[in-house]
Every structure is written in structure tokens, then in C-alpha cells.
Amino acid sequence: MNKKAPAGNPSRPNPLPGCPMAAAFAAIGGKWKLTLLYWLAHGECHFAGLRRRATPIAPKVLAEQLRELEADGLVERVVTGPVPARVLYRLTPYGTTVLPVVEGVRVWGETHLQRTGAAPDSAMSCANALEPAGMTSAVQ
Question: Using 50, 70 and 90 to split pLDDT, how confident is the model at 47?
């Protein structure tokens, strides 16, 4: 994958051009993207902080997922100092528009866990609802 991929991430072509569902899955599909968006909805975070919150994720996979979210305009990477630079990740205004979807998936997952009798994993602790204030629908 090209580390310098421009917005829209052409390195991951849409398998069904013009299909809204395929476009959504290309942007937020994957094992970790919704979880990363959930944690970034709680505030900006360093790479290590995201890695701690999404415990079993490998650093390489985390970097790839963040690059893809950045390329799709959902997350921005902010360099906070000189080399070696500390980097913060945060949602873009456009990224906040996906938070109602993230919250809907979280609620559905909570119900699914109850239905299947599985105990929620406290290590992941994604049990807290996203605040409505953070779930704006305005695209900027």
C-alpha cells in the first residue's frame, strides 16, 4: 500500500463503482476501523494509546488502518514536534459524520452479545455510548 496515498485511497479500488454500500465498506470496513473511530470519537490520541485500547492489534495493522482512514478523510494525523515526532490522530469534521453509524454498530453488538450469551470483554471496554454532541451530521 502506498503510504502517501491521496484522499479517496485509489489503492483500494471500489469493487462496485457507484454502489453506496461498497463505498461505505471500502471506507469503514475491516476488522479495526470502527473500533478506531470509536476511540477517536472520545478525543485525539497517540499511536501508542490507540494500540493499548485495541489491545490485540499489531502495530503494522494499526498503522495501515490509520493510513486508510486518513486517506479517506476520516482521520487526520497531526505531527506535534521535531523528529522523532510525536503524532496525534483525531477525527476530521467529515469523520464525525460516521459516528452515528459507529454508535449503531456498537449498540447492535451489545445486543448481539446479550443474545448469544457472550460476556462483553472489559479489556476492550467499548461499552460506553458515544456522546450525541460528538455525533454531528454536518459535513465540513
Answer: very high
Beta-carbon contacts of residue 81 (< 8 Å; ≥ 6 apart): none
Other CB atoms within a 10 A radius of the CB of residue 17 amount to: 8
Judge contact between 67 and 3, C-beta under 8 A: yes
User: Taking the model in full, what pTM does it have?
Assistant: 0.80
Which residues lie below 8 Å from residue 79, measured CB to CB, with a gap of 6+?
85, 86, 87
Q: Which residues contact 102 (CB under 8 A, 6 or more apart)?
A: 34, 37, 38, 41, 130
Between CA 102 and CA 33 the distance in angstroms is 10
Nearest C-alpha neighbor of 98 from the set 59, 129, 138? 138
8-state DSSP, 59: H
Q: How high is the pLDDT of residue 137?
A: 44
Residues 59-77: pLDDT tens digits?
A: 999 999 999 999 999 999 9
Q: Is the pLDDT of residue 139 over 50?
A: no
Strands 45-46 and 75-79: unpaired
